[in-house]
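Components:
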Amino acid sequence: MQITLNGQPKDIPNNTSLAALVDQYTKEPTRVVAELDSAIVTRDAWSRTILKPGCTVELVTFVGGG
Amino acid sequence: MQITLNGQPKDIPNNTSLAALVDQYTKEPTRVVAELDSAIVTRDAWSRTILKPGCTVELVTFVGGG
Amino acid sequence: MQITLNGQPKDIPNNTSLAALVDQYTKEPTRVVAELDSAIVTRDAWSRTILKPGCTVELVTFVGGG
Amino acid sequence: MQITLNGQPKDIPNNTSLAALVDQYTKEPTRVVAELDSAIVTRDAWSRTILKPGCTVELVTFVGGG
Amino acid sequence: MNTDQLEIAGQKFSSRFLLGTGKFRNKGDLKASIIACGARIVTVALRRIDLERHDENILEYIPEGVTLLTNTSGARTAVEAVRIARLAKAAGHGNWVKIEVINDSKYLLPDNEETVKATEILSAEGFIVLPYVSPDLYIARRLVKAGAAAVMPLGSFIGSNMGLRTREFIKVLIDEITLPVIVDAGIGAPSQACEAMELGAAAVLVNTAVAIADNPPMLAKAFSQAVEAGRAGFLSGLPAKRPQGEASSPLTGFLFE
Amino acid sequence: MNTDQLEIAGQKFSSRFLLGTGKFRNKGDLKASIIACGARIVTVALRRIDLERHDENILEYIPEGVTLLTNTSGARTAVEAVRIARLAKAAGHGNWVKIEVINDSKYLLPDNEETVKATEILSAEGFIVLPYVSPDLYIARRLVKAGAAAVMPLGSFIGSNMGLRTREFIKVLIDEITLPVIVDAGIGAPSQACEAMELGAAAVLVNTAVAIADNPPMLAKAFSQAVEAGRAGFLSGLPAKRPQGEASSPLTGFLFE
Amino acid sequence: MNTDQLEIAGQKFSSRFLLGTGKFRNKGDLKASIIACGARIVTVALRRIDLERHDENILEYIPEGVTLLTNTSGARTAVEAVRIARLAKAAGHGNWVKIEVINDSKYLLPDNEETVKATEILSAEGFIVLPYVSPDLYIARRLVKAGAAAVMPLGSFIGSNMGLRTREFIKVLIDEITLPVIVDAGIGAPSQACEAMELGAAAVLVNTAVAIADNPPMLAKAFSQAVEAGRAGFLSGLPAKRPQGEASSPLTGFLFE
Amino acid sequence: MNTDQLEIAGQKFSSRFLLGTGKFRNKGDLKASIIACGARIVTVALRRIDLERHDENILEYIPEGVTLLTNTSGARTAVEAVRIARLAKAAGHGNWVKIEVINDSKYLLPDNEETVKATEILSAEGFIVLPYVSPDLYIARRLVKAGAAAVMPLGSFIGSNMGLRTREFIKVLIDEITLPVIVDAGIGAPSQACEAMELGAAAVLVNTAVAIADNPPMLAKAFSQAVEAGRAGFLSGLPAKRPQGEASSPLTGFLFE
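Structure:
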């Protein structure tokens, strides 16, 4: 199925959890914040959050800034 | 009867017209603009505008300014 | 006899030594420098330096300055 | 014979006059000032001034400047 | 004929110097100053007539043909500014208004937000609106949308004569906004007015400095000349600053080489 | 008739703007610039003629009646400056000389001490001497004694367009010295020239900024106007700066009280 | 013990120097700079993770106990700023947010109006909000009402190193507003940071100048010292400027009288 | 250990801040100020003793080990300066002398030419000579030849607190002269001292500002910190100014693209 991750279209297996998605893209999930369809999903809810086709996920993190 | 003229209480005869009031306070009515109870009264309407007790009149004019 | 001390005329006894003059005007001779007729007189020479009528003495010291 | 003209060595015929030299290098002699061996030579003296071997001539003129 | 004219709301003006009419020691000085500087736009204010004594009529001292730009001084909100503007229009001397909304008696700084609101309302009513603001790019963009005829950023505090303390931010407006930028407030010397024009301002408005000078007409004319000089400087392609020296006389042909 | 004229060595001049003639891209621009700005004094330099090719005659481009002020550029000592001045005089175009003694190829700063010496010698020979110096009160006093006709302090480095970086020290000369103070060097914009005049300078000399502008005659005229404006500002009693605001419109008679 | 501490939202900080963490050539320099300058508050930004490669974790380079102030860079509206702030909070590193709403890619000027709106929303949600604004008295008053914890006016354009070009208007905020005033943006040299503190600013934030210096930790420490020096200058009663000289050595007792 | 020490005449000093001792309201403040700022060189003056009353001994308030730099204030000529220097040496507190020759009671400007002469004489006699001058490249070159140990150009008028009004000309000395450049006079705020050091000055001397502050020791320390900060700024490679903005946060990875 296709989702939008950080503005890019991505094909992922059906029934992928948010936790699995995060694990795929970063080694340090603890510093990532996730938004699913514009709503923040807290870290403890990631494993039980199953992504649906066409959803939009944002994974963000801290970077240097002024 | 009492009215408020330019922020000050004034006693004037009953049935005074706006035109009469203006004449009393300036020699150059053509450069005065009149507001009666917050509405502008055009010059041609001054004579037929009879002031009522308790009304508020503003007579303003141009002055030097930056 | 009369001398000029720091720009002012002063009457002093004949045969006054420079050391005696200094002692009269300051409690801390060690911080004073003396000039006699535009020549510096070192401290060890003060006692044997006898002032002559009409001579000019400058006694100077350190003060705050920028 | 050789002379130095404006800092450069130049071969010129013997008995050349300053006037002839000037004529060779400019079309507008009236705006040139001449120095021969560090002394100014006025224009009226140019024809009777015969250059000698080894002499130093400066020919200068006005230019734009601030 | 001078083709580089100030243009506001489709009207052309032969002078880029605007004069305020407040604070003159006498009205004769005012009239002489307007004539001396050739201003084609002057500001006036609106006040209650004095009930105790006869006021002088300021308009008598303003030459025929000069555009009156009434300010809304005294207004603390957009609503008050709108009311003053409408009164001024009713007086029958045109519909040019300088929006001035101030809630600060110490520095006399303009309230940008209320000024935008008043500009929207009055532009919609057909006024030619020149808002006086702190120079701010976003406010200027909103004034463009609101229908302002020009933007009047302050150089420094009103009446302070401190000059162009907002230089960089006025330059941003000049570069980014399509409306004429008229520097208003704080300009206290011809050199300061000249510098504003060199930056590319469309015009400069001065009041206090002229009014309180020893010789107001002379200084008014000086400002006007300085504004012209600055405009010509801007148009003629002023060269940039360089951190070192560079000879103006030739570096060749020296006698002592 | 303008009675406030620049006076140097007993001669009066109808303009307080002096133009340098170096670095113009073409001589037509130079001539047009002199005419546009109305300068009555222009500087020129003296150089060896070019032995290889015909030089243009700079004097053809300078209108009749304009005073030539020959600089001593190229001189590194008083002796060299004196020699250049004497050559210039021999050329038959008057005895006005701007002493310029420079031993610094980076900033082109003048050597004050050598300049004083050259001034002494040339004044004694009857030259009208205008020395170019770093602004220094003691040097200026010595130039007065040496017979200088004016003092020409630098605003900033020659050709830098940095403006009046010596403001306070030029002001000291204006206040303390009886000779005309002509600000020379570094003036790169009309506003800067205007400011120099507002301080009380007698005149301003510009070369580089005009010569390298996109439109030299237009900028020359702008400088001239700015100089006039600054002079009028000085004479009209410019008001002082104030750290706060002060209303230009009346503080009474507000509608909303 | 130093009792003159920076206090924001009831918390005290032993340093009045805030450091931004962007643009460092390497993260080692960043960490060394934070330690060298002793900053107790540092700014960070929030960005999408890079899907192609492993990002460095900026937080590893920020010493324990330092307060993270997340900026909302990238936001063009209040709504976007609010969304970024909420994400930052969800990351579990506190609720301090620097509101930064910018719609101007050339000068990076803040949109004051949107910033006020974001401040209202986020303060109401319990965030500690430090809004970055153009210095404007009315905006600052509204920020006070909106619950801001401090006001962060710009000194000049972000990253420009131009220093305190808004001097007079920052001073107005310092004098008129009860919140701490933290000068942000454009501060490019320790002397500039020092001057901001002498005016009475509560703190200064620097990023670009330190990050791109040859020796970032050395310059970070220099800024920190300069901020302390400026604060002490402010507290010690700096004397005013005088237009003339005044001897520092005694004017009596001269030898040559 | 700090290896970047001020070095004058082969001696090293742990502080680049020099303090003048004049004008303090009380000597306790003076002593506390010297201790607070850690100055290793302080200036003093020489005056006739007061014949009518007992003077305080200034030397008691100067900590052991601090180098005394006696100024020649009161001297109007090289000859008088030399005489004062010799008296100071005879007092037995070293041979460091700050040449100060002034013939201008309004601005207190130094007479460069007399100062050079005094420097020649005193250097030849073995004094360590620090001449106070108006910043002038040629004078500085002559001071190098005359054997000066440092050059002390003025920032602005003595006691004026006007700061670095001679910025460009001090920078010329720093770049062109091998001697230490110590900025003296007119420095009235830590930010100004800091800026002088950022330009590359070797040290800064302050007196009036500290002496007349509300809290002299606090301000003395602030100056000392600011001088250190400015020095570190100079050494760390301060970045240049830019006329536009440049983001400090990343320009990629925005959420709203």
